[in-house]
Amino acid sequence: MLAISKTVPVPLIREIAAYGQRRFGESYVQEALPKITDLHDLRLEWHFVGPLQSNKTRAVANHFDWVHSVSTAKVARRLHEQRPPDLPPLNICLQVNISHEASKSGADAADLLALAQLVTGLEHLKLRGLMAIPEPDADPIGQRERFRAVHDLYQMLQAAGFALDTLSMGMSGDLEAAIAEGSTLVRIGTALFGERS
Ligand SMILES: *Cc1c(COP(=O)(O)O)cnc(C)c1O
Q1: How far is the CA of 189 from the centre of ligand 1 (A)?
Q2: CB atoms inside a 10 Å sphere around CB 69
Q3: Pocket flag, ligand 1, residue 51 (CB < 6 Å)
Q4: Which atom of ligand 1 approaches the CA of 196 most closely?
Q5: How confident is the model over 164-173, as pLDDT tens digits?
Q6: Other beta carbons within 10 Å of 182
Q7: Rounded (10°) angle between helices 112-120 and 140-159
Q8: Over 70: is that where the pLDDT of 103 sits?
Q9: In sequence order, what DSSP letters do the residues of 126-140 get, joined into one string?
Q10: pLDDT band for position 99 (50/70/90)?
Q11: Residue ranges of E strands in 104-192
Q12: For residue 173, which atom of ligand 1 is closest to its CA?
């Protein structure tokens, strides 16, 4: 489980960390940086899961361990160039857009192979897997169909020779469907910390 701590204050993150939770995810760079600094003593693992504009890549490359929202070659190249060489490679999930309707973030399935090849060739990045945020769907059958489509793409990349170990899908409202379809990392905010105000 990745604990999504956006809008959650530092003392509450400390409380959850005291129970043994080590991996936390944030969506907004400006909010995350002071929290990461405050919590430095705990040596937590920080995942960036929000939309990533080019002008924010440097801060993310400097302060995070993982990025789940890489969907363009430009952002991947910038993260590689800006990752400090004394840090381990930045772990990368490619965000894929499988429900084309409203959500515009994420790469098209047709572009995934080329993106995976690019990231694999960048030494300051380490390709770990895929991330998806399907359209909300109250129907568990519909949820599972979307997650299954992401899992199919994940297996397609593995069959093409990419050594992937992370399928980041499922949030508070659809985590059961995501796990049933092979998620390896659910991103949980509300179900852990309560409603965001
Ligand atoms: C906020 C957020 C989550 C957590 O959502 P909940 O419904 O509160 O569990 C997961 N993933 C991403 C990318 C988010 O922005």
Answers
A1: 6
A2: 22
A3: no
A4: 8
A5: 999 999 999 9
A6: 15
A7: 50
A8: no
A9: EEEEEE--PPP-S-H
A10: confident
A11: 125-131, 166-168, 187-188
A12: 7
